[in-house]
């Protein structure tokens, strides 16, 4: 038999190997450089596992006590040094082996018993689920905080009229409040998606071991209760090979980023000279290295740009998982870096965009002036004719003819004389002029969800957001 190289026996799995792992392979396969951020969740899972082993008599009470004491010491050491400042030996491969090797240094006998009835396969699934349960709460709280800011701005701007757009063409007058509440509604759906995904994330994988379970008398229910999991994975093979919960989180984050990107795009457009609807505070913009006059909306642009990396993470994990046979495969290690990047991206963006919105000045006079231009009240004329008994299709055609007349004569609707109006329909009376103002247009649309009931919308959304914020 070939002689074992000097450090070959250091690997916890090296019993059947006769050669040490090549340094290039250690560098290629290690994950501790990024999964070290799972340390607190890994130790929490190990504590719960050790308690269960002791309670079940699989290890002695004294051994359990030593393991728990050692894990607490390791946790405190990591907290004191902070994960990013610890020099992790890449030869230990991952955070699971790091914690175990440190424990064995403290307690050489009992430390080696911690890994009884578990595998890194179910261990990493546990850690990732614990991470996402925690991060989902962080993200939804950040979204709620941003919603509250948007609602506050909406309350101040209930009467701030602006143009609404379809096809990027001026369509009908709306209010700034109404426009902002559209995003509040979008973000509400985002939170609902995250909350729904937790139903499937909140599942204990530990106890599945490598894939087939264990012959030892473990108590998975006790571990689930200790760690706060609502359910236990029904199938041990699925428990270690499932990454649906990671995909769901990234997918939900992609939807969130899509909404944030749409918002950022509007901020970029509105801050241009061509629109001039807003001025973003200097604190949230940057300048040009060559053009002294420039004030660039870089924060909004980066939010829009970072959407691509979140989408990329979704494609990456879907591609990684699409052809994997059951059960665990090392390919699944590739879920961590995209997931961590998504977490960092969204949790950094939400506070920044919230701050930026609090420091935006709206050009209310220009927004109102723009809302009145471009025959934005044409639909109001058509609906006026409907109230007079004219079928909508006919009213639409009549109004189109009126608009054509206005264009040919360089007039706006409200500038037409009553005689001119009556050339197109005798149903038009003097009362049409009270309808042809942006204020009347906005206030008149009292249908549920329309511009005329923005105060009610604010109350409804405020109630939802406050309930999520306070829990009452």
State the main characteristics.
Fumarase C, Chain B, domain 1; 472 residues; 5% strand; two-stranded parallel ribbon; mainly alpha; 59% helix; two-stranded antiparallel sheet; Ribonucleotide Reductase Protein R1, domain 1; 19 helices; Fumarase C, Chain A, domain 2
Overall pLDDT metric: 94
Low-pLDDT runs: 1-9
Order of helices and strands: HHHHHHEEHEHEHHEHHEHHHHHHH
Query: How far apart lie the N and C ends?
Result: 69 Å
Tell me, what's the shape?
elongated
Q: Give the CATH level 1 class of the largest domain.
A: Mainly Alpha
What would you call the structural class? Answer: mainly alpha
How many domain units?
3
CATH architecture descriptor of the largest domain: Up-down Bundle
What is the topology, as strand order, of the major beta sheet?
Answer: 1-2
Main sheet record? 2 strands, antiparallel
Portion of residues in beta strands equals: under 5%
What is the helix content?
55-70%
Give the strand tally: 6
Radius of gyration: 31 Å
Specify the number of helices. 19
Remind me, CATH topology of the largest domain? Fumarase C, Chain A, domain 2
CATH superfamily of the largest domain: Fumarase/aspartase (Central domain)
Produce a short descriptive summary.
The chain is mostly helical. The chain has helices at 23-29, 32-35, 39-55, 61-81, 95-106, 120-156, 176-201, 220-227, 236-241, 244-270, 298-321, 336-357, 364-371, 378-387, 392-408, 418-422, 432-435, 438-444, 454-470; strands spanning 161-166, 169-175, 203-204, 231-232, 278-280, 360-362.
